[in-house]
Amino acid sequence: MFERDLRIISCSVNNERTLLAVSFRQYTEEERVSRLLQSVSKYLTLLIEIHPINNVRVLKAVDSCVRVQFLYPAEDRNAFTGSRLLLVSEDKYVEQFDIHVVAEEEHKVVIQNSGQLPRARVADDLIWAQWDMMEQRLFYIVPKESRSTLKCVQFYPDENFNSILESHLDISVNGTQLKLVNFGYDYCEDQDVASKSLNLQVFTSKSGGLCVCCSLPSDIPGEIRYSIYFLHKGYNKTFTVSLERTESHQLKEVAFMNLDYYVAAYLPGQFLHLLNIHHPDLLCYSLFLTGEDARIEMLQNSSLRSPLTSTVLDCRVGSMYALSISDSAVLRLLQNSTRDSQRLAALHCALLHFRHTEDLEMEIIWWISENLSTCHSFDPIQEFIIASLYCRMCPETHNLDKLLPYTSLLDWIGVIPGVTCTTDIISLPVLEFQNSKGFWEKLNSNLESVKYAEPHLHYHNNVLRREWRNLSEEREERKTTAYLRNIFENAKKVLSHLDTWDSEERLVPLFQEEDYQQQLLMGLMVAQLKDHLMRHLQYVGRKKIDQIVLDYVANLLNLVHRIMKEVWRRYQLHSCTFCFDERGSAAEFAVFHIMSRILEAANGMCLPLPPGFHTLHLGLGVRCLPLHTLLHYIDSGVLHLTETCVRKLLKDLDDSEENEKLKFSIVTRLPEALGQKVRQFWNHPINAHLIARKYVKLLLEKLGNRQCNRPVPERLSVPVEFLPLNYLTNVLAEIEDQGVHPYEKQDDVNVRFVEETALKHTMMLLGLRYS
Length: 771
Prior knowledge:
The chain has 21 helices and 27 strands. By secondary structure, the protein is of the alpha+beta class. Among the domains are: 462-640, no CATH class; 685-766, no CATH class. The strands form 6 sheets. The chain has a 6-stranded mixed β-sheet, with no helix packed on it. Strands 5, 6, 7, 8 and 9 form a 5-stranded antiparallel β-sheet that branches. It has a 5-stranded antiparallel β-sheet with strand order 15-16-17-18-26, with no helix packed on it. The radius of gyration is 38 Å and the shape is elongated.
């Protein structure tokens, strides 16, 4: 200690704890006048050897305030022989001092050439500056003619520094005083210049996000305005907030806090806005909280700073707090909110911000199952699937987040109560760096994405839907082509990822049959997603892309299965529900409704479903729906007739009058290929009538314009005097003799079968007995 009662402004210790830089105020203006010390400087900046002899070097003796900050190089540096010190002057310039030391015995060091310390000018004419301790960066703003310019200097371990960023901002700085952020806190000075300086802060995120947050003046009482410049996206959003309470003594400056995935704008007692850095284009992915939801404990009516990510400094009491978003609070918000915008923002936060856990997914799925009909502006099932896939896949590969969809919404035009927002396109920052990894590389990648129309980079399903429809309609003609064989090979690879599930995972009876349509869609999705990624991720390699795509589609099926499993558990259904001996319960009807919404969500985004989904859905429909509703669902495409379900239905149900009506209605709606496979399982006159009618139709189509000129052999031992039938059987026999047999695999279907079936059906309609 060499002086008592110092009014310290700023101090900093070097990385080795051998040097101390300190800036302090010697006298106030009144003290200088009263002591006749007008020639003595008001402020002093010293460089002090901590060990061994406390030599003192005067760096500045001036009448303007100075802040000091040592640079901290990379920790793995070995032979370090010096330190670098930044001096930020109230006269609006920044200097760097290079301080070299000499090692003496017993690890003692002394300053070398202390009378001639090399210095370099870092920045001039600045009006605002912010120090980033963790990344060793200096952001500062230089006023220009009509707008300001944000610049950034990056300091490197090899004692070099470069101006690496320049961005033009439409921020007025006329008449403002110098504002320094993260250079220490002087309460008196802060109160003095608060009304005349910029309330502005720059935040960066690990993913390459760069945001400039700034409070704006407002002439309207009870209204707060602030702007967020999303420099990595190329636009600025200005928010105008109507305050619920306008007591003047409560109004403070808006505090901005960096939460990495979000930027928080906080006005104690009024509002808390969590603005999404990754996806700021749609406001429905940002949380706008008021009232009790906007309350941060222990940070009420305080002057706040955010010096580090997820950290906040309460300047009033000098306490530092770790700041994070509570997953339980987000879930409560999701469950209790009645506004779609808040629900969607909370759902997005829960899915993409927090680490996925079994319990979190279960809570979300249960909430979805209860709110399928209450969400009007988005489909929660679609959002759950797409956002969960995005969260699971993107950490694997750099830039994959720019190629996969993160939302099911293409646009959102809703309203946030009490908040209006205007969006302005801004020029992209200019970067100048070489071989710089980490943040700068990621920021540059984000800017390149914006330049090349980022929305078009995300995979979409337009081509997939069209190709799936074409192949579904042309499957008979193209099913043997190499292209189609490759598509189904893709589907087999996807399904092979799911074969390791244990019996507990198979609580829901899925993945137990082949489904041509769903396998076709799976294979097509693999092929088209692979092509999409290959266009933009060539450097990753084909093998890695193949694995990413297979994992993506397999995870998609896994998520649908996860939804089904949680719903199955919640409604306490067992794995033997798939039978027709009794009517369905209320729980089964609820599950049927959820499955219908899953199908609707999948159709809306052209997503494949697990094989067996349609069979289970149809089975629940048969159990739960009255016949007319069941048939309506089939005719409208909600329920799909599958071979497994129809075969089980025909075999398990007896031929009571009600069941006959059900079977007949189902059989008449079967596609031809499927009908030929399953009709043999129903030994009933109605079924024989349908088979005979179809056989006649096909034979007559083969006949065309050909004439029957040969005598027809007698087909029945006892001729039947029924002239219309006789003529029909003669024509059919003539066609058969020409070698035309539509049902070549069913030897029991021929003209004799048609004739007998026709007679039986006619006698039955007339109420007569056939012998």
